[in-house]
Write a structure and sequence with these properties.
422 residues; alpha+beta; 5 helices; 25% helix; Kelch-typ_b-propeller
Length: 422
């Protein structure tokens, strides 16, 4: 009798009763026979004859080691999942402790926690696939799952999960601008006698004071575009450690307006270096991608924005109209025409009213629904272009002009005043 494998002269070690007559095999080719033969032929009758007990013991040891490795893989995977859940719980606890109006936002919190559950269920499904797979396939699945786990961690630590759970109010106690034609950021502390510090960030090119900026969660600033040479650039500056993250951009613009709302930054209008545009874009953090929106009704630069209830109130420099952009409908409604020609405007809001402040012009007040508007007084500011990011802090709005003059608008007193030259 010879081994079933052609031209094999090895010593026979196994007899497999899966066929009639039985299949004889050496220890080298027995695993190949079991893998290649029909699986159903081996189910009722296991491999029963092993003339060499030492070889049988070696095979059992090999199978035992494979099972041990699989159990160890499952143990580590479960441990990793437990650690991730623990991190989520700790970060959720920190987020909950920071809520100012926790009771009022219960429904929002529950809705956003479901996002965590969806991601956790996705990971659980992936782990079940790994445990049910053959060892080689399980390793490949496990390698592929690392990308999912990394993205999951990024959104906890970055602007994803926490920003959705926390009711972001676009507030900051720091006012940020670029020094013109440099790579320096000027950071003014609104809580500490308006003291300012400067620091360099790592960029490939010098930035303009007109770089579009808006506050985003995580004590960070989203920067977009450049001027006078329009540039396809966008990046995030972390104000905690001055680290930047570059984001790919397909278009080249400067002098745009931007606002953060619900895990996205919305960018409106701008300047190409030759003419003004009515372009509108949305950058979605969770998918790291840009989306084209319906264009503004008019060409506009220096667009100022505020957002709430899936709507964005906005106005720009090249016109006198105030618009409302509906995020769900991806459409615009003209709310008011202040009929004042071309003005630079600052838009802000408290819990009761919205305000449009004209640079060197008047202050307009709108009701909570942004429908009724009236003139309430003079802005008493200079009439030049805006720079930096407009920020809200303790019911006051801070903004600056190209002369680096910082102004404060008190929404209770409804008055503007110059704070300092930065």
């Amino acid at each position: 009798m010879k081994c079933w494998k052609d031209q094999c002269e090895n010593k026979l070690e196994f007899v497999c009763p899966c066929a009639n007559p039985p299949v004889y095999s050496c220890d080298t080719h027995i695993s190949t026979h079991i893998k290649t033969a029909s699986r159903s032929r081996h189910l009722p009758d296991p491999l029963t004859i092993s003339p060499n007990p030492e070889t049988k013991r070696a095979l059992i040891d090999c199978l035992h080691k494979s099972l041990s490795d699989l159990y160890e893989l499952r143990r580590k995977t479960v441990l990793d999942l437990t650690m991730q859940i623990k991190q989520i719980n700790e970060k959720m606890k920190i987020a909950l402790e920071s809520f100012d109006e926790f009771i009022k936002n219960q429904r929002k919190i529950i809705s956003e926690i479901q996002i965590v559950e969806v991601i956790s269920n996705s990971r659980k499904t992936q782990i079940n696939k790994i445990l049910a797979a053959e060892p080689e396939e399980a390793i490949n699945l496990l390698k592929g799952s690392f990308d999912i786990f990394d993205r999951f961690n990024f959104f906890i630590d970055g602007v994803g999960i926490l920003s959705k759970i926390e009711p972001f109010k676009n507030e900051s106690n720091r006012f940020i601008i670029f020094r013109d034609a440099s790579k320096k950021i000027v950071k003014t502390d609104l809580n500490n006698n308006y003291s300012s510090i400067e620091f360099n960030i790592s960029l490939n090119s010098r930035q303009s004071q007109y770089t579009t900026m808006c506050i985003i969660p995580g004590n960070s600033v989203f920067c977009y575009g450049n001027y006078p040479q329009a540039a396809s650039t966008a990046f995030i500056i972390d104000l905690n450690n001055n680290v930047k993250k570059v984001i790919n951009v397909d278009n080249k613009l400067g002098l745009s307006g931007s606002i953060y709302y619900n895990n996205s930054v919305y960018v409106f209008g701008g300047y190409t270096g030759h003419f003004y545009v009515n372009n509108a874009y949305r950058y979605y953090f969770l998918e790291n991608k840009w989306e084209n929106l319906n264009p503004l009704p008019v060409q506009s630069s220096f667009v100022s924005c505020i957002a709430k209830n899936n709507k964005i109130l906005l106005s720009g420099r090249e016109h006198s109209k105030i618009y409302c952009y509906d995020i769900i409908q991806n459409s615009y409604i003209e709310l008011h025409d202040i009929q004042a020609g071309i003005w630079r405007k600052i838009i802000c809001e408290n819990n009761k009213n919205a305000y449009v402040i004209e640079a060197g012009g008047y202050i307009y007040e709108g009701n909570q629904e942004w429908k009724a508007w009236s003139t309430i007084g003079s802005s008493e500011t200079e009439n030049t272009d805006l720079i930096g990011c407009t920020v809200l802090w303790q019911n006051k709005v801070y903004f600056a002009f190209c002369g680096y003059n910082l102004y404060e608008f008190d929404m209770k007193k409804k008055k503007c005043k110059k704070i300092k030259t930065i």
